[in-house]
Structures are given as C-alpha cells and as structure tokens.
Specification:
- It comes from Tunturiibacter empetritectus.
- Keywords: Membrane, Transmembrane, Transmembrane helix.
- One of its GO terms (molecular function) is cyclic-guanylate-specific phosphodiesterase activity.
- This protein has about 290 residues and is of the alpha/beta class.
- The chain contains eleven helices and ten strands.
- Helix 6 (about 160-175) links the parallel strand 5 (about 145-150) and strand 6 (about 175-180).
- Helix 3 (about 85-110) packs parallel to helix 5 (about 130-140).
- Mean pLDDT is about 90; it is low at about 280-290.
- Bound molecules: ligand C2E and magnesium ion (3 copies).
- The site of ligand C2E has 25 residues, from strand 2, helix 2, helix 3 and strand 6.
Length: about 290
C-alpha cells in the first residue's frame, strides 16, 4: 500500500508539475505576442512629499491584460520576461512609454513631476541600455533630471565595473538613481559610498509593520536616519494605512507612495487623482502627528 501510495504521490506531483509547465508555456507564448498585440500598458502611482503634501512624482508600473489569461501581475510576468529575455523589448517599450506619458502629464498638470521607472537585472546588463535611455529622453522631451531609474541592491552586486560604468553614464546624462526594495537585498552598505544614489525606497514589508511592530519601526527609523545622514532622499513604499502614514510623518520620511495615498492608475486617470488629492483634505500630510 505504501508503494502504491508513493506512486500516487509521484503521479500527483508530476501532474502538477506538468500543469505548471503547461501554464508557463502558455504564458510565455502569450507574452511573446503581448507587445505586438498591444496588451501591455503602463500605470502610474503618485508619490507625495511628506513635508508639503504635494504630489512630487510617479512610479511607472507595467500592466499586462491578455484576452484569454486575463490580468497578469508583474510579479508573475516580469520574472518570466527576465528568463526568456523578453524583458529587453518589453523594457524598452515601457521606458519609452513612461517617458512620453510622464512628459505629457507634466505638461497637462503644469507640474514638475518626477518619473520613476523600474529596471530589472537583465535590462541593466544590456549593452545598449544607455542609448535606449537617451533615445527615450530625447524623443519624449522629458528632462533627464526628472527621470529616476529604480534598481535593487542585488543589481549592484554583480560585475561591479560594468555596473559602475552604466551608473556613471546615467549620472552624466543627469538621470537619478533610486534603490528599490531597500533593506531586502544581499548587499553591503559600501555601495552607498561608491555610487551616487539619489533615493532609497524603504521596502513595503517594513513599512507595513512599522505601525505595529517595534522591530520594523526601528528598521524604518534607522533607514530614514541613515538616508538623511548621507543626504539621500528616503521614500516609503506601500503605505496602506493612516497609522503608517502618521508614523512616517513623525519620523520625517521625505516621500511616500502607497494605496493609502493613491493606487496606480492609467495615464488618463492620473490627472484626476492628482486634482482630487490637491483638493481633498490635502494634506493628510500636514495633520499634526501624534506621539
Ligand atoms: P516595485 O518596483 O517595488 O513596485 C511597487 C509595487 O507595490 C507595485 O506592484 C505596486 O502596484 C505595489 N503597491 C503600491 N502601493 C501598494 C500598497 O499600498 N500595498 C501593496 N500591497 N502594494 C502596493 P506591481 O505593480 O505589481 O509591480 C511589482 C514589481 O514588478 C515592481 O515592484 C517592479 O519590481 C516590477 N515592475 C513593475 N513594472 C515594471 C517595469 O516597467 N519594468 C520592470 N523591469 N519591472 C517592473
Ligand atoms: Mg519600483
Ligand atoms: Mg519596491
Ligand atoms: Mg521590486
């Protein structure tokens, strides 16, 4: 019976593996055509200043909706795009789209908004990354000073000379560098002395617990203090509650982003979100902090 059981388990295991492989292949096949079929779009999430309460910029986030598969989350398709190399054309498209739409939003709103764009490891390793960025900037008319590229700590670990060279060239263009998901990577702090970083984005896992968990609160406070000591702007990601917002205000975090402030939206809705935010009891950010 044990033997039979074992075989059944094996069959179940292999069936689920087979199913997973089939799903992956379906998704991969669909992703290959996503660009040509115009299934990709960009959403934009507002970022606000915690000192003025004003919207200061936006993070561009890829969205994929396939007629058969429905909406697929970036956390599912970005890794697949990385593995298959599809991230290169998709990333180029995302970059160009975000620069053009970001510039159009700046013009429409008459605001000097910063546009932040995520780069994944494979994109960062591309030889033509800098020309791609230059092309997106010149075609869109977006000022390089208003562009931030978001990279993770882990990306600074590999092949440091290449990395340094690319970051140097970005800086020469005037483009800013943000460290995304800060605090979750495998990296020493030494890169903060080697590379000129403009912003640290505190990972949402810390932000989420900061209002209730003393250790998470200590991590957030420490990241804020370190950033200020290094003259780097600090941004909290994934702010979901009033409590988290108050904590960040109290601790003098510079900027915040999250569903509590506004969810990522399509370009067409962004201006409305910004206007509502400006009209509203604006500034949640100027409310007196407790404690
Ligand atoms: P990320 O760069 O850390 O982006 C922040 C993620 O948190 C986004 O997920 C955003 O929608 C989500 N988020 C924002 N506010 C909240 C909140 O209050 N609560 C919660 N739970 N989540 C919040 P999204 O859009 O699913 O993107 C996931 C990741 O995919 C991004 O993480 C980024 O690493 C990657 N990604 C997204 N767009 C692009 C892109 O255009 N290019 C590249 N290379 N990667 C991208
Ligand atoms: Mg990001
Ligand atoms: Mg992040
Ligand atoms: Mg991320």
């Amino acid at each position: 019976a044990a033997k039979e059981n074992g075989r059944n388990q094996f069959q179940i295991f292999s069936e689920s593996m087979l199913k997973e492989t089939a799903e992956r292949l379906t998704m991969e096949h669909a992703l290959r055509h996503a660009l040509a079929n115009k299934e990709l779009s960009m959403h934009y999430q507002p970022q606000i200043s915690l000192t003025t309460g004003a919207v200061t910029g936006m993070e561009a986030l890829l969205r994929w909706t396939n007629p058969r598969l429905g909406s697929i989350s970036p956390s599912q398709f970005i890794p697949l795009a990385e593995e298959t190399g599809l991230i290169v054309p998709i990333g180029e498209w995302a970059f160009m789209t975000a620069c053009c739409e970001g510039k159009a939003l700046q013009d429409e709103l008459g605001m000097d908004l910063t546009v932040s764009i995520n780069l994944s490891p494979r994109q960062f390793q591309q030889k033509n990354l800098v020309p791609v960025v230059e092309h997106s900037l010149s075609k869109s008319g977006l000022s390089p000073e208003k562009l931030q590229i978001e990279i993770t700590e882990n990306m600074l670990m590999v092949n440091s000379e290449h990395v340094l060279d690319k970051l140097q060239k970005m800086r020469e263009l005037g483009v800013g560098i943000s460290i995304d998901d800060f605090g979750t990577g495998f990296c020493s702090f030494s890169y903060l002395l080697e590379y000129q970083v403009d912003r640290l984005k505190i990972d949402q896992s810390f932000v989420k617990k900061a209002g209730t968990d003393a250790n998470a609160a200590a991590v957030v406070r420490t990241i804020i203090a370190m950033s200020h000591g290094l003259n780097i702007k600090v941004v909290a990601e994934g702010v979901e509650t009033d409590e988290q917002m108050r904590f960040l205000l109290r601790r003098k975090c510079d900027e915040a982003q999250g569903n509590f402030i506004a969810k990522p939206v399509a370009m067409a809705e962004f201006s409305e979100v910004v206007r509502q935010y400006a009209d509203g009891p604006s500034a949640r950010a100027s409310e007196p902090a407790i404690g």
